[in-house]
Amino acid sequence: MEIKGKIKKILPRQDFPSGFYKQTMVVTIGGRYPQDIPIEFNKEKADLLNGLGVGNEVVVHYDLRGREYNDRHYVDLNGWKVEAFGGSQPAPAPTSRPAQDSQIDDEDIPF
Question: Which domains does the chain have, with CATH numbers?
Answer without folding.
Answer: 2-86 (2.40.50.140)
